[in-house]
């Protein structure tokens, strides 16, 4: 059976971009419908993320003109990740597959065909991965590389060079809706869902118009969100650090004893040093222990599903 596809496109203040890119999305839906890859009720879903310009006007106008264009508008600007999530939640039970994509033409629309092929070959999640970063500035290329490494070291598993261009089956989107956390970093969360996945490689181009909504400050915020929403490793680092400092303190105590007994000290120095070293180590370890519990509480508050059964032998076996 031909799958029904929804392309989910978050848009924020994109009045200069949308008129140029709407055609890319609708042409793709039309050509895939004509060649029989997807069903006729497939659509492009634009999410207006509280734009202050005429973005919503353009979306409405397009949806009146073209039956494969639909839109939703959010009450204010919630940020890219939330806008995307709002769009995905809207697709639940309406389609078989969703593909999320930026509206600025940077994600190569032709990768959609390959993504659908991967889906037909059994992947529930297909990541759009950038072939290279040749088009990026020196700074962006290296900061991005550093970010992916740092994130991996911090315990968040993300797909290298993958942003939010991805295909998800309806099953995955439904599962995603069971994650109720407010700070959601989709790139890190989706690999955690654990479904069969694969990657499709594409070249990312320049924006067709307008400018990025991710200047350095916002990128750093996103990186911080990525780390803190997925991992409690920063808290764990305190305890490791505490142990290291305690070890140094132990050496400090031994040193002050040796200095005391060899008579190289003024009165009161050895005892003060011992106390300072001892307390320093104890305090850091204690903060680390508290951190461990805070981390546990943090993970509990997210109320994530503890497991997800994807197949059963006694119903729909594959
Ligand atoms: N976007 C959004 N809400 C925001 C910021 C961005 O919906 O608060 C959308 C934006 O319209 C675009 C996508 O998210 O479709 C990616 O943003 P952008 O192209 O500015 O980021 P970049 O590609 O430069 O990282
Ligand atoms: Mg962009």
What does this structure look like?
This protein has 318 residues and is α/β, with parallel strands linked by helices. 50% of the residues lie in helices and 13% in strands. The chain has ten helices and seven strands. The chain has helices spanning 18-34, 55-65, 80-91, 111-120, 138-153, 170-176, 186-193, 216-230, 233-261, 269-302, and strands spanning 5-11, 43-48, 69-73, 97-100, 125-130, 162-169, 197-202. It has a seven-stranded mixed sheet with strand order 3-2-1-4-6-5-7, sandwiched between helices. Strand 2, helix 2 and strand 3 (69-73) form a beta-alpha-beta unit. Helix 9 (233-261) runs antiparallel to helix 10. The protein is elongated, with a radius of gyration of 26 Å. The two termini are 17 Å apart. 30% of the residues are buried. The model has no long low-confidence stretch (mean pLDDT 89).
Give the tags.
318 residues, alpha/beta, 7-stranded mixed sheet, 50% helix, binds uridine-5'-diphosphate, binds magnesium ion
Number of helical regions: 10
Q: What is the rounded Rg?
A: 26 Å
Mean pLDDT: 89
Could you give the count of β-strands? 7
Small molecules (ligands, ions, cofactors) in the structure:
uridine-5'-diphosphate, magnesium ion
Write a short abstract of this structure:
With 318 residues, the chain is an alpha/beta fold.
Helices, strands, pairings?
Layout: E1 5-11, H1 18-34, E2 43-48, H2 55-65, E3 69-73, H3 80-91, E4 97-100, H4 111-120, E5 125-130, H5 138-153, E6 162-169, H6 170-176, H7 186-193, E7 197-202, H8 216-230, H9 233-261, H10 269-302
Parallel strand pairs: 1-2, 1-4, 2-3, 5-7
Antiparallel strand pairs: 4-6, 5-6
The protein binds uridine-5'-diphosphate (UDP) and magnesium ion.
Magnesium ion is lined by residues 102, 104, 106, 207, 212.
């Amino acid at each position: 059976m031909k799958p029904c596809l929804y392309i989910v496109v978050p848009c924020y203040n994109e009045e200069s971009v949308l008129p140029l890119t709407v055609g890319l999305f609708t042409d793709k839906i039309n050509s895939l419908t004509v060649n029989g890859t997807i069903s006729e009720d497939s659509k492009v879903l634009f999410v207006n993320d509280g734009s202050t310009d005429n973005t919503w006007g353009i979306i409405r106008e397009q949806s009146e003109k073209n039956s494969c264009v639909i839109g939703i508008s959010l009450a204010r600007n919630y940020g890219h990740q939330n806008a995307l999530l709002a769009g995905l939640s809207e697709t639940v039970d309406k389609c078989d597959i969703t593909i999320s994509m930026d509206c600025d033409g940077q994600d190569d629309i032709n990768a959609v065909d390959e993504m659908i092929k991967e889906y037909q070959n059994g992947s529930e999640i297909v990541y759009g991965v950038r072939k290279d970063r040749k088009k990026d500035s020196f700074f962006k290329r290296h900061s991005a590389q550093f970010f992916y490494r740092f994130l991996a070291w911090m315990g968040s598993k993300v797909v290298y060079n993958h942003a939010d261009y991805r295909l998800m089956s309806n099953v995955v989107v439904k599962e995603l809706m069971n994650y109720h956390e407010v700070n959601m970093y989709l790139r890190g969360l989706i690999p955690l869902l654990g479904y069969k996945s694969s990657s499709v490689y594409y070249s990312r181009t320049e924006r067709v118009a307008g400018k990025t909504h991710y200047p350095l400050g916002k990128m750093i915020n996103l990186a911080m969100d990525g780390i803190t929403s997925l991992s409690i490793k920063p808290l764990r680092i305190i305890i490791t650090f505490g142990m290291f400092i305690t070890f140094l303190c132990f050496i400090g105590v031994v040193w002050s004893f040796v200095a005391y007994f060899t008579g190289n000290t003024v009165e009161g120095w050895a005892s003060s040093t011992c106390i300072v070293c001892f307390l320093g180590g104890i305090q850091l370890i204690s903060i680390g222990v508290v951190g461990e519990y805070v981390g546990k509480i943090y993970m509990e508050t997210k109320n994530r599903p503890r497991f997800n059964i994807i197949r059963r032998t006694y119903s729909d076996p594959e």
